[in-house]
């Protein structure tokens, strides 16, 4: 494995996330207090929490938690069982371990660009990688498009994995079912694994657009899930891998012995509570997005000379274009330094695999404070 480069997005956040007054680019939904989460517990779950034993937990994850996770894959394709699930510490550990287990120096992988950096950098530290660009597509729902033919053209005889992130960070892109099926068909015809980061699954604008999880749709599909984003519980550091290939899951489990060994017992117990209240938490979060999005629509309509905006098809982040002459890097630096409003410039999504848009910025709209952060951005524009 080659040395990993600096994680541009996390370094930027290390500088600003907890110092900027207004966080207008969070990747996750509004969180909650421990008390609020415990209030959602059934009497049995509350009892389990009060009696929680703070020993090591099972490396694969507590059986009750794995069963609850499996219960979230309830599609018409037959669903999954607790034995198809491996619990990880955040999605980040799932990405890291799955790629270690799947890829070696003789392999080739394909990744969508721009992308959440670990999907590109961890892969590139293990094998050859080709980036397939997500293209702006003003006529498509959500404003972005993936061309399955270009993806097929990027494959090599030794391509072992295609990495997807659907719904996508930072664009909110969600393919149509036809494009999704085309990608699965391409992979299946060559026996290629698909690893799909599905941390925004559950935040589709229209429920009927939700795609099957790749672990349900494809026998060589590995789904990455987490409580951090759609559920707004990143402090639990509770993620998972779901896959119907038990041998691969076992190999990943043995790698986990070298990273975290097991997930924190309190997080596992709280994760069971959160998944038990899944519908209520997701409904709350969808309602928050539904309240915030019109404010963004109106803001970008008022400032159409400065920005190009299209509401994303899913998720709680978007990647609008900045049209100002000084460029998006100077703009975002000025906004955070003078007005304390944090946006993520395109440079944190730079890629070593080819050109990616350099005039975009990430905005997040999953928080109760999104309206006041947006108002601070508007005040900045008015003062400029
Ligand atoms: C697409 C994507 N995958 C994975 C992660 C890592 O998630 P976690 O914090 O749960 O490890 C993030 C975090 O921003 C993300 O946006």
Task: Provide keyphrases for this structure.
16% strand, three-stranded antiparallel beta sheet, single chain, binds pyridoxal-5'-phosphate, seven-stranded mixed beta sheet, 2 domains, Aspartate Aminotransferase, domain 1, Aspartate Aminotransferase, domain 2, globular, 384 residues
Describe the structure concisely for a colleague.
The chain is α/β, with parallel strands linked by helices and 384 residues long. The chain is 39% helix and 16% strand.
Number of strands: 16
- State the CATH superfamily name of the largest domain: Type I PLP-dependent aspartate aminotransferase-like (Major domain)
Shape: globular
| Neighbour order of strands in the largest sheet | 2-10-9-8-7-3-4
Count of discrete domains: 2
CATH top level label of the largest domain: Alpha Beta
Q: Which strand-content bin applies to the residues?
A: 15-25%
Ligands, deduplicated:
pyridoxal-5'-phosphate
Rounded mean pLDDT is: 96
- Total helical segments: 14
**In terms of structural class, how would the helical and strand content be classed?**
alpha/beta
Q: Per CATH, which architecture of the largest domain?
A: 3-Layer(aba) Sandwich
Give helix and strand order, one letter per element, not per position.
HEHHHEHEHEEEHEHEHEEHHHEEEHEEEH
Helix content: 25-40%
- The low-confidence parts are none
CA radius of gyration is: 20 Å
- Termini separation: 47 Å
Pfam families: Aminotran_1_2
Protein name: Aspartate/methionine/tyrosine aminotransferase
Keywords: Aminotransferase, Transferase
InterPro entries: Aminotransferase_I/II_large (IPR004839), PyrdxlP-dep_Trfase (IPR015424), PyrdxlP-dep_Trfase_major (IPR015421), PyrdxlP-dep_Trfase_small (IPR015422)
């Amino acid at each position: 494995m080659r040395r990993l480069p600096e994680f541009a997005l996390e370094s930027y956040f290390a500088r600003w996330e907890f110092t900027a007054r207004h966080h207008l680019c969070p990747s996750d939904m509004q969180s909650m207090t421990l008390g609020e989460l415990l209030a959602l517990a059934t009497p049995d779950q509350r009892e389990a929490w009060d009696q929680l034993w703070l020993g090591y937990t099972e490396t694969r994850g507590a059986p009750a938690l794995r069963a609850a996770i499996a219960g979230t894959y309830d599609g018409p394709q037959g669903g999954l069982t607790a034995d198809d699930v491996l619990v990880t510490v955040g999605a980040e550990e799932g990405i890291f371990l799955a790629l270690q287990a799947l890829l070696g120096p003789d392999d080739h992988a394909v990744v969508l660009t721009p992308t959440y950096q670990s999907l590109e950098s961890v892969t590139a530290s293990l094998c050859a990688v080709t980036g397939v660009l997500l293209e702006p597509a003003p006529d498509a729902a959500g404003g972005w498009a993936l061309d399955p033919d270009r993806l097929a053209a990027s494959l090599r005889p030794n391509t072992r994995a295609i990495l997807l992130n659907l719904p996508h960070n930072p664009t909110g892109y969600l393919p149509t079912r036809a494009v999704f099926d085309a990608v699965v068909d391409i992979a299946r015809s060559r026996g290629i694994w698909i690893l799909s980061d599905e941390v925004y699954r559950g935040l589709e604008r229209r429920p009927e657009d939700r795609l099957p999880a790749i672990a349900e749709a494809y026998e060589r599909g590995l789904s990455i899930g987490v409580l951090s984003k759609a559920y707004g519980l990143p402090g639990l550091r509770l993620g998972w891998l779901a896959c119907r290939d038990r041998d691969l899951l076992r190999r990943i489990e043995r790698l986990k012995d070298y990273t975290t060994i097991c997930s924190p017992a309190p997080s596992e117990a709280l994760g069971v509570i959160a998944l038990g209240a899944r519908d209520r938490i997701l409904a709350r979060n969808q309602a928050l997005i539904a309240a915030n999005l019109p404010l963004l629509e109106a803001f970008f309509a008022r400032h159409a000379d400065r920005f190009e905006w299209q509401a994303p098809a899913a998720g709680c982040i978007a990647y609008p274009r900045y049209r100002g002459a000084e460029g998006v890097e100077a703009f975002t630096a000025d906004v955070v330094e003078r007005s304390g409003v944090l946006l993520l410039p395109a440079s944190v999504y730079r890629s070593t695999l080819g050109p990616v848009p350099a005039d975009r910025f990430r905005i997040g709209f999953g928080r109760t404070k999104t309206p006041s952060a947006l108002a601070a951005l508007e005040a900045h524009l008015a003062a400029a």
